[in-house]
Amino acid sequence: MNIGAAAAASGVSAKMIRYYEANGLIPAADRSEAGYRLYSDRDVHTLRFIRRARDFGFSMAEIADLISLWRDERRASADVRRIALSHVEDLEARAAALLAMSRTLRHLASCCHGDGRPDCPILDDLAGDVLPGAPLRRAARDVSHDGV
After folding, report:
1. How far is CA 81 from CA 55, 62, 66, in A?
2. How far from the centroid of its chain's Cα atoms is residue 143's Cα?
3. Is residue 79 assigned to a domain?
4. What is the pLDDT along the chain (148 residues), one digit of tens a residue?
């Protein structure tokens, strides 16, 4: 099947199929006499695997490792589990960092009068313009570095 059909069958755009091919996640496509890429059902199955792995946020390197394990019938499931749990740790760390940022921004917004005056503690914090020792700056730092 051509790249358009492979894209439709896998849910991966033609552009991303070319990207995955260029980066070795799928083998180089066979070519028709006219030079068009041709993909097999196996390629489409691999593209679906990649799409699902990307949905879970795995990196390209992790996906390459997972594809290798997927194709290896003598794989140890412990290797797959190790990759998955390492990714879970990364996701949880990113979630914690996002929560800390959210709390800091919520605190800064609560300190903003939200009226017609030009004074804005949010912009001051982003610019680092709050005078040293000012309570708002200290409070914002405490919220953003509390490790939660």
Report:
1. 17, 12, 10
2. 25
3. no
4. 999 999 999 999 999 999 999 999 999 999 999 999 999 999 999 999 999 999 999 999 999 999 999 999 999 999 999 999 999 999 999 999 999 999 999 999 999 988 888 888 899 888 886 555 555 544 444 444 444 4
110 phi and psi angles, rounded to 5 deg: -70, -25
Would residue 6 count as lying in a domain?
A: yes
Domain extent for 134: 95-148
What is the distance between the alpha carbons of residues 88 and 66, in angstroms, rounded to a whole number?
15
Domain count, the chain: 2
The model's pTM is: 0.74
Give the distance, in angstroms, between the CA of residue 59 and the centroid of all CA atoms in the same chain.
7
Residue 87 forms part of a structural domain: no
CATH number at residue 39: 1.10.1660.10
The per-residue DSSP string of 81-120 comes to: HHHHHHHHHHHHHHHHHHHHHHHHHHHHHHH---SSSS--
